[in-house]
Amino acid sequence: MSAGAVRPAIEGWYTLEAPAHLIGARCPCCGSYFFPPLISQCRNPACTGGPLEAVKLSRTGRIWSYTNACYQPPAPYVSPEPFVPFAIAAVELAAERMIVLGQVVAGVDVAQLRVGMPMELVLETLYREADLDHVVWKWKPLEPPP
Amino acid sequence: MSGEVAVLGVGMHPWGKWGRSFIDYGLQAARAALADAGVRWEDIQFVSGAATMRCGYPGYVAGASFAQALGWQGAEVNTSYAACASGSQALAAARARILSGACDLALVVGADTTPKGFFAPAPGNRPEDPDWVRFLLGITNPTYFALYARRRMDLYGATVEDFTAVKVKNAAHGAVNPNARYRKRFTREEVLASAMVADPLRLLHVCATSDGGAAVVLASEAYARRHSRQAPRIAAISTVTPRFASREVEMPDIATDSAAAAASHSFRASIAARAYEEAGLGPEDLSLAEVYDLAASMELDWYEYLGLCREGEAEGLLRSGATAIGGRIPVNPSGGLACFGEAVPAQALAQVCELVWQLRGAAGERQVENASAGITVNQGLFGHGSSVILKR
Q: Each residue of B237-261: b (16+ CB within 10 Å) or e?
């Protein structure tokens, strides 16, 4: 990432220190997870629940499906000039048994992706404004261990 | 549910990009439905409007707006909002009113005037709203359609040729539908030459947004009998919500439910399952289906969610020709969203209009032979299921 101050594009949805994690909510009673962490009570109808606790979600998972954005999305998306297409992945987290969407890191195209492929979570610039890098979580193909 | 409700009349304002008020479309559709039913507006006791909300403007797309346009006559009124499923909920409200004995005649209306381009969220800075955040991330509606399409390709061997074949089939159906916006018999080459929107989906695989209006006149069994009217009957209306943990990646969500502590359920399969249960019918009893092809590839998903074939077999069903008019179970004989484009609160009612014409044997060149029962299915944002079964 280039020099310049860094701030989260969305506050409170992910950790900023490496390695990055999404911050979810977990029900201490039944063990269900929720993302984004915007709710206060468990939504499992079979759970009598209590307050949810903030937890770091698994930072790796497998691709459920993927696509890309070939057209510039409408605001609030902030586009570079000119618009640069990007890939998007839906990644299934094994322990949480949930699927989380996100952009795929710059430079990785749909041709390099497939269903079932292992991915990891990283932070990357979503947009740059007034010398500030607004970072967000993105999915990156997991490098095999050396 | 006891008793039956008859669909006496249906009417539509043709789909297009007319740029007029939604009231105009609803009014024309309502008058056409009343004329079709042979019922005077003054005799309607209940008006049920299908509403939408977009870019923060309030839902003045409402039952009372249509009642005023038709001329205030004192009827009681209802407005239903369920995103793309609004029409089915407005229909369900009218049916419940009739079945309760509170009225004999009801008018259901849905109409919309849509903005150009991608549906976009209301302006402002709303990080607490996942629908706003997904646009910040560049995740548009076609993103979701493409995720489903790509999964079919990697899991079931679907090809872009299959998605294109759905579009070409529906274009042929819609070419002879006077209410369709696009009445062009698109060729495979034209579809494949259109711009890529969200890989693997091209512009002509994805439905447009349209202006349009649709209306339905419902009557109690007693009224239909008294007036010696043969009319299709409503066998079921499903307006189910999902069950936790819902497994499908749903627009506008960024994540699914977690199935870590609860069984995983398919919301989409549950929509038609509820309708079949209420109707006492199954997929084998159907003559036709109108499904929500927001993208051509999603028609294939619906074959499976409706039980027309097993999971992973939709491509085979399509390739066999079974889902074209003349086949075993024609799907989207109206031309579907591929030929209409989406006019959100009118769309579920437009599906019902097509079933009625088909069951009457009045669908002209797109007639499904000996149609005796049909199903509609669609899904509205935020967990709104919608399926209607009509029988002759």
A: bbbbebbbbbbbbbbbbbbbbbbbb
Q: Do B127 and A11 touch (CB under 8 A)?
A: yes
**pLDDT value at residue A1:** 45
Is ipTM over 0.90? yes
Q: How many domains does chain B have?
A: 2
Per-residue pLDDT tens for B32-85? 999 999 999 999 999 999 987 765 444 566 899 999 999 999 999 999 999 899
Whether B102 and B242 share a structural domain: no
Rounded mean pLDDT of chain B? 94
* Partner-chain contact A101 B139, CB within 8 Å: yes
For residue A57, the tally of other CB atoms under 10 A from its CB is 25
Residue B256 with chain A: CB contacts under 8 Å: 98-99
Q: Per-residue pLDDT averaged across B265-291, rounded?
A: 98
Q: Domain limits at B314?
A: 145-203+235-391
Is there a single domain that holds both residue B67 and residue B41?
yes
Number of domains observed in the structure of chain A: 1
